[in-house]
Design a protein that fits this description.
Helix content is 35%, strand content 18%. β14 and β15 form a beta hairpin. The chain has 452 residues and is of the alpha+beta class. It contains 13 helices and 15 strands. It has two domains: 110 residues, Roll (Ubiquitin-like (UB roll)); 311 residues, Creatine Kinase, Chain A, domain 2 (2-Layer Sandwich), CATH 3.30.590.10. Strands 7, 8, 9, 10, 11, 12, 13, 14 and 15 form a nine-stranded mixed β-sheet that branches.
């Protein structure tokens, strides 16, 4: 039993004692949000735990507003928007100590014939992990989520149209012990809630933007890492809200530093040994060189899974600690891919994802790119030294539209994910672009109302 697992027997005992009265059943949607329902323990234990539940199939065909969107072949008005099957993954059952009397379990989404829904983020990552298994490899990962914390509630922020919000810190608190002490009651509660849920926290720290913080979770198997990521993200928002605060993981809230989600990845063999180093203990292995070459060659085509929203691309600015160039370097924060660690801990840090990323899709994309390099025996790409912002290097797609076109036309994405999945997520980007292009922004009003 893993440190995060709550057994059905233990759940039954806690329910009988009245310690648990709610089971949160949730599945990550295309945006990486948890969607589902709350069920009673007796119903869960008698009818769901060893079987399934159902939910509307539109959960994999809506925009951020949960509005059904045209253009998805998987589900539509013509198909009647029937149900999906929610199959609980018992290995993810854990306490939800930030909610009184609650436990939470993540679910896989299946079609009515009980085959995995191919467009579900968890399914997409599992597909890439299964591809790795054919080579005798497993993936280990970690995500570093940054957020901005405000002394306004979510309701106040909404009513104020997100203007004039009061950040929880008034100056740069990067690594500051004094500055982070101001918000330690909330940050401490988030850390301890995760530990009580079996999600090991390594540390928390202040960041550069006003009210910006980061809480880092323990490195682990890739699927478990993503599951813990989405639970943590949900819990952090709920804990902030309960304390009259709001926090955002959006990639770029203002003109200062954006919220990153640096995503770490390494591969291990069947003996659970890291394989990015040669037997001499310091030289990059052939697998590493091939993996990195594939990741770099296909990074632009895979960027849609690293930067899924219009706002995502506003992070990429010179001198911002968010990358602009597709290169790899040793402990070089100006590159999109930073290689760090010592000995068996050597790993690739992908600096492209922001706090708005869907972790399942980001890690699936990293694995897909790396596998293309391994299976295609790509030639090594030399490491970059120096300032990648100022160098002549391939660049990150400048917008969601550019990234979606590259993603949709890529042989790599079609081979890795399948044509249906590629079309599904290209349609998601298309719907976002259409919604944005039809909106009238404050920027337009301030520039045009009087002076044009």
């Amino acid at each position: 039993m893993s440190d995060s697992e709550l057994t059905l027997q233990a759940l039954q005992t806690m329910a009988d004692r009245g310690e648990i009265d709610t089971i949160i059943m949730a599945a990550p949607d295309m945006q990486g949000r948890l969607q589902g329902k709350r069920v009673m323990p007796r119903f869960f234990l008698e009818s769901v735990a060893t079987s399934t539940a159902e939910g509307c199939a539109y959960l994999l065909a809506t925009n951020i507003e949960c509005q059904p969107v045209e253009g998805y072949s998987l589900v539509s008005w013509d198909q009647g928007y029937g149900d999906f099957v929610f199959r609980p993954d018992l290995t993810t059952l854990r306490l939800a100590p930030w909610q009184q009397g609650a436990a939470i379990i993540l679910c896989d989404i299946e079609l009515q014939n009980h085959s995995p829904a191919p467009m579900a983020p968890r399914t997409i990552l599992k597909q890439q992990l299964n591809r790795l298994k054919t080579h005798g490899f497993t993936a280990w990962a970690a995500t570093e989520l940054e957020f901005l914390l405000f002394r306004n509630s979510y309701e106040e922020a909404w009513d104020q149209a997100y203007r004039g919000l009061k950040p929880a810190n008034q100056y740069n608190n990067d690594y500051s012990i004094l500055g982070t002490a101001r918000v330690e009651p909330i940050i401490r509660r988030i850390r301890n809630a995760m530990e009580s849920a079996g999600i090991q926290v390594e540390n928390s720290k202040g960041e550069c933007n006003l009210g910006q913080h980061e809480i880092n979770l323990r490195y682990g198997p890739a699927l478990e890492t993503c599951d813990k990521h989405v639970v943590y993200k949900e819990a952090a928002k709920e804990i902030a809200a309960e304390n009259g605060h709001a926090l955002t993981f959006m990639a770029k809230f203002d003109e200062r530093e954006g919220n990153s989600c640096h995503t770490h990845l390494s591969l291990r063999n069947a003996a659970n040994e890291a394989i990015f180093l040669d037997n001499d203990g310091h030289s990059p292995s052939k697998v590493f060189r091939q993996f990195m070459a594939g990741l770099l060659r296909h990074a632009a085509e895979l960027t849609l899974f690293f930067a899924p929203n219009i706002n995502s691309y506003k992070r990429y600015a010179s001198g911002s600690f968010a990358p602009t160039a597709l290169a790899w370097g040793i402990d070089n924060r100006t590159c999109a891919f930073r290689v760090l660690g010592h000995g068996q801990s050597i790993r690739v840090e992908n600096r492209l994802p922001g706090g708005d990323v869907n972790p399942y899709l980001a890690l699936a994309a990293m694995i897909a790119g790396g596998l293309a390099g391994i299976e295609g025996d790509y030639a090594p790409v030399p490491l970059f030294e120096g300032n990648a912002y100022a160098a002549e290097l391939p660049r990150i797609p400048p917008s969601l539209g550019d990234a979606a076109l590259l993603f949709a036309s890529s042989e790599c994405t079609h081979a890795a994910f399948g044509t249906d999945v590629v079309g599904h997520y290209a349609n998601m980007a298309k719907a976002e672009l259409e919604a944005f292009n039809s909106a009238i922004t404050d920027w337009e009003k301030f520039r045009s109302f009087e002076r044009m």
